[in-house]
Amino acid sequence: MKLICIGRNYTEHINELENEKPSDPVVFLKPDTSILLKKQPFFIPDFSNEVHHEVEVLVKINRVGKHIDKKFAHKYYNDIGLGIDFTARDLQRQLKAKGLPWEKAKAFDGAAVIGKWIPKNELDNINNIGFSLKKNDEIVQIGNSSHMLWKIDELIEYVSKYFTLKIGDVIFTGTPAGVGKVVANDKLIGYIENIEMFSITVK
Ligand code: ZN
Question: In which band, very low, low, confident or very high, does the pLDDT at 23 lie, cut at 50, 70 and 90?
Fold first, then answer.
């Protein structure tokens, strides 16, 4: 399985990193080895001094498809989740400056947190999902899927032009504003509405 990640999908996050607003979604992949194993802490890798949390809504693909029209995209997923796209921001900055791929900063072991799943029919409207990330005792990121530049079904249409979607693939739909550095002993808890979706400790 593969993780398909979207960058720059929320205007306020684009502004906080001083990125340009893209005319197409920014897409990158993470390998399955980047998934943080259940109940394991996240270990800050020794090649970075600035790992950031990026909380993101996740979509789990449940049907094989390619060139999926957005009108039919809803048939290709049933479960919505929440996760973290951990990013070694210092390394990403260096790679970006040289025009190099981001994988070393985004696809390392443990860099993808995948929490629990909620059937989409238990959510009133997938284009109006409130979600947040609590770090220790403070809410550090608040988002709503209504603010996505490209909505879930549009993302499926877009990424399936390039990649065949397979059962079990996960789409990370981009992070809202409020990304920030994690340090050892931080505790990160993600919520969709008031439902706890994951809880992890940083080491
Ligand atoms: Zn991200």
Answer: confident
DSSP tag of 12: H
- Residue ranges of alpha helices (H) inside 74-179 are 89-97, 103-106, 152-159
| Rounded CA separation 127/70 (Å) | 14
Residues, CB within 5 angstroms of ligand 1 (ion):
54, 85, 175
* Percent of the chain predicted with pLDDT > 70: 100
Distance (angstroms) between ligand 1 centre and the Cα of 175 equals 5
Please tell me whether residue 190 adopts helix, strand or coil conformation: strand
Contacts of 136 (CB under 8 A, 6+ apart): 186, 187
C-alpha 31 to ligand 1 mean position (Å):
14
CA of 18 to the centre of ligand 1 (A): 15
Cβ–Cβ under 8 Å, residues 129 and 123: yes
Q: How far apart are CA 172 and CA 163, in angstroms?
A: 15
